[in-house]
Amino acid sequence: MALQKLLKGQWLYCVLGILFNVVSWVVLSKSGKPLTPTAPLSGIFVMAIYGLFLLAAQFKQINLYRVLMLVSILILGYGGIISHFRLLSQSPELYHSFLVGLIAILINSFGLILNSLATLGKFRVSSAH
Protein backbone atom coordinates (compact mmCIF):
# COMPACT_ATOMS: atom_id res chain seq x y z
CA MET A 1 0.00 0.00 0.00
CA ALA A 2 1.24 3.49 -0.81
CA LEU A 3 1.85 5.81 2.11
CA GLN A 4 -0.53 8.39 0.64
CA LYS A 5 -3.36 5.83 0.53
CA LEU A 6 -2.66 4.79 4.12
CA LEU A 7 -2.66 8.45 5.16
CA LYS A 8 -6.01 9.04 3.46
CA GLY A 9 -7.48 6.25 5.55
CA GLN A 10 -5.87 7.66 8.69
CA TRP A 11 -7.19 11.16 7.98
CA LEU A 12 -10.63 9.60 7.48
CA TYR A 13 -10.28 7.89 10.86
CA CYS A 14 -9.25 11.22 12.43
CA VAL A 15 -12.25 13.04 10.95
CA LEU A 16 -14.66 10.25 11.95
CA GLY A 17 -13.32 10.35 15.51
CA ILE A 18 -13.69 14.12 15.70
CA LEU A 19 -17.19 14.04 14.18
CA PHE A 20 -18.32 11.29 16.57
CA ASN A 21 -17.17 13.41 19.51
CA VAL A 22 -18.77 16.57 18.09
CA VAL A 23 -22.09 14.70 17.84
CA SER A 24 -21.55 13.45 21.39
CA TRP A 25 -20.94 17.04 22.52
CA VAL A 26 -24.17 18.20 20.84
CA VAL A 27 -26.10 15.33 22.45
CA LEU A 28 -24.53 16.20 25.81
CA SER A 29 -25.58 19.84 25.49
CA LYS A 30 -29.18 18.84 24.69
CA SER A 31 -29.71 15.85 26.99
CA GLY A 32 -27.03 16.20 29.67
CA LYS A 33 -25.48 12.84 28.72
CA PRO A 34 -22.83 12.20 26.03
CA LEU A 35 -23.00 9.29 23.59
CA THR A 36 -20.26 7.41 25.45
CA PRO A 37 -18.41 7.79 28.76
CA THR A 38 -15.64 9.64 26.89
CA ALA A 39 -15.83 13.38 27.57
CA PRO A 40 -16.52 14.79 24.09
CA LEU A 41 -14.03 17.65 24.32
CA SER A 42 -11.33 15.25 25.49
CA GLY A 43 -12.14 12.97 22.57
CA ILE A 44 -11.92 15.88 20.12
CA PHE A 45 -8.60 16.95 21.65
CA VAL A 46 -7.10 13.44 21.46
CA MET A 47 -8.17 13.04 17.83
CA ALA A 48 -6.76 16.48 16.97
CA ILE A 49 -3.43 15.44 18.51
CA TYR A 50 -3.61 12.26 16.44
CA GLY A 51 -4.03 14.46 13.36
CA LEU A 52 -0.85 16.30 14.32
CA PHE A 53 0.91 12.92 14.55
CA LEU A 54 -0.05 12.27 10.92
CA LEU A 55 1.85 15.37 9.85
CA ALA A 56 5.10 13.50 10.47
CA ALA A 57 4.30 11.26 7.49
CA GLN A 58 3.15 14.22 5.40
CA PHE A 59 6.62 15.69 5.93
CA LYS A 60 8.29 12.33 5.21
CA GLN A 61 9.57 11.90 8.77
CA ILE A 62 8.90 8.19 8.49
CA ASN A 63 10.70 6.96 11.61
CA LEU A 64 8.95 9.56 13.76
CA TYR A 65 5.63 8.71 12.09
CA ARG A 66 6.01 5.02 12.88
CA VAL A 67 6.85 5.75 16.53
CA LEU A 68 3.87 8.10 16.82
CA MET A 69 1.60 5.46 15.32
CA LEU A 70 2.81 3.01 17.99
CA VAL A 71 1.90 5.61 20.64
CA SER A 72 -1.51 5.95 18.95
CA ILE A 73 -2.04 2.19 19.08
CA LEU A 74 -1.29 2.15 22.80
CA ILE A 75 -3.53 5.09 23.65
CA LEU A 76 -6.40 4.70 21.18
CA GLY A 77 -6.28 0.91 21.20
CA TYR A 78 -6.77 0.88 24.94
CA GLY A 79 -9.13 3.83 25.38
CA GLY A 80 -10.99 3.44 22.11
CA ILE A 81 -11.38 -0.31 21.97
CA ILE A 82 -10.56 -2.19 25.17
CA SER A 83 -12.03 0.41 27.51
CA HIS A 84 -15.20 0.84 25.43
CA PHE A 85 -15.63 -2.93 25.10
CA ARG A 86 -15.22 -3.41 28.86
CA LEU A 87 -17.54 -0.54 29.80
CA LEU A 88 -20.14 -1.43 27.19
CA SER A 89 -20.35 -4.98 28.52
CA GLN A 90 -20.20 -4.06 32.23
CA SER A 91 -22.05 -0.71 32.32
CA PRO A 92 -24.14 -0.33 29.16
CA GLU A 93 -26.13 2.47 30.81
CA LEU A 94 -23.08 4.72 30.26
CA TYR A 95 -23.80 4.60 26.53
CA HIS A 96 -26.58 6.25 24.56
CA SER A 97 -27.25 2.79 23.11
CA PHE A 98 -25.48 -0.48 22.44
CA LEU A 99 -25.23 0.50 18.76
CA VAL A 100 -23.50 3.79 19.64
CA GLY A 101 -20.95 1.90 21.75
CA LEU A 102 -20.39 -0.53 18.91
CA ILE A 103 -19.88 2.35 16.46
CA ALA A 104 -17.24 3.85 18.77
CA ILE A 105 -15.45 0.49 18.91
CA LEU A 106 -15.67 0.04 15.13
CA ILE A 107 -14.29 3.52 14.41
CA ASN A 108 -11.34 2.85 16.69
CA SER A 109 -10.83 -0.66 15.28
CA PHE A 110 -10.56 0.89 11.82
CA GLY A 111 -7.90 3.24 13.17
CA LEU A 112 -6.09 0.41 14.94
CA ILE A 113 -5.75 -1.54 11.69
CA LEU A 114 -4.37 1.49 9.86
CA ASN A 115 -2.05 2.47 12.70
CA SER A 116 -0.77 -1.10 12.90
CA LEU A 117 0.07 -1.06 9.19
CA ALA A 118 1.90 2.23 9.71
CA THR A 119 3.79 1.05 12.79
CA LEU A 120 4.89 -2.14 11.04
CA GLY A 121 6.03 -0.18 7.98
CA LYS A 122 3.56 -1.93 5.65
CA PHE A 123 3.54 0.92 3.14
CA ARG A 124 5.58 2.28 0.25
CA VAL A 125 7.00 5.77 0.30
CA SER A 126 7.06 7.06 -3.24
CA SER A 127 8.17 10.43 -4.46
CA ALA A 128 5.83 10.23 -7.49
CA HIS A 129 2.38 11.77 -6.99
Can you characterise this structure?
The chain is an all-alpha fold and 129 residues long. It has one domain (3-119). It is 77% helix and 0% strand. The protein is built from 4 helices and no strands. The chain has helices at residues 3-31, 40-58, 62-90, 98-119. α1 (3-31) packs antiparallel against α2 (40-58) and α1 (3-31) packs antiparallel against α4. It is elongated.
Spell out the key features of this protein:
129 residues, mainly alpha, elongated
Q: How many domains make up the coordinates? A: 1
Helix content: over 70%
Distance between the termini: 14 Å
Shape: elongated
What is the string of SSEs from the N terminus onward? HHHH
Specify the number of helices: 4
Largest sheet: none
Beta-strand segment tally: 0
Mean of residue pLDDT values: 95
Tell me the β content.
under 5%
Radius of gyration, rounded? 15 Å
Uncertain residue ranges: none
Class by helix and strand content? mainly alpha
